[in-house]
Amino acid sequence: MTFPLDLIQAQRDWNLTYAQLERRPAETTRLRVRLKTLSVRLAVHPFWDTAAGRNPSARVALRQRVRELEAVESGLTDMQQQILKCVRAWIADQGEAPTLRQIAEEVGLSSTGSVTYQINRLEELGILARREKGRGVAVRW
């Protein structure tokens, strides 16, 4: 099942906030308000109105997919994490993927060949996908 990136990010934020709540009891009020806000964002997301979202197992599948994502991302190198963060931010801000040169400038690499190598590794892990068009990187999750 494929989930929208903003829904995946909302679930990731919820998981992170919940973990912080367990570690920071002094910030309970602020974190509970954030959890409530994230819970509402998750509950009213338009995905749940689609045929795939109405499937009773969809919410469980979302949580499972996010756990898989977190496990894979915990094994990324620092550079791979920087590139992934750059691509996600660029897509969120610009609405399209950055070019290899833009990624290189953003993360401080001197050549697009280095970026290509890292993107190939991220593609092998299933985190990024290549497209045939210009700006040919897409985040899978």
Describe this structure in words.
The chain is mainly alpha-helical. The chain has 7 helices and 2 strands; from the N terminus they run αααααααββ. The N and C termini lie close together (12 Å). The mean pLDDT is 87.
What Rg, in angstroms, do the CA atoms define?
17 Å
Percent of residues in helices: 55-70%
**Strand arrangement in the largest pleated sheet:** 1-2
User: Are there runs of 5+ residues with pLDDT below 50, and where?
Assistant: none
- The 3D shape can be described as globular
Order of helices and strands: HHHHHHHEE
Largest sheet: 2 strands, antiparallel
pLDDT averaged residue by residue: 87
Q: Structural class of the secondary structure composition?
A: mainly alpha
By DSSP (H or I, 4+ residues per run), the number of helices equals 7
Say how many strands there are.
2
Terminal Cα span: 12 Å
Estimate what percentage of residues fall within beta strands: under 5%
Task: Kindly summarize this structure in a few lines.
The protein is mainly alpha-helical. The protein has helices spanning 5-23, 28-43, 51-54, 58-73, 78-94, 100-107, 112-124, and strands at 128-130, 137-139. The protein is globular and about 45 Å long.
From the structure above, extract its key features:
141 residues, two-stranded antiparallel ribbon, 66% helix, globular
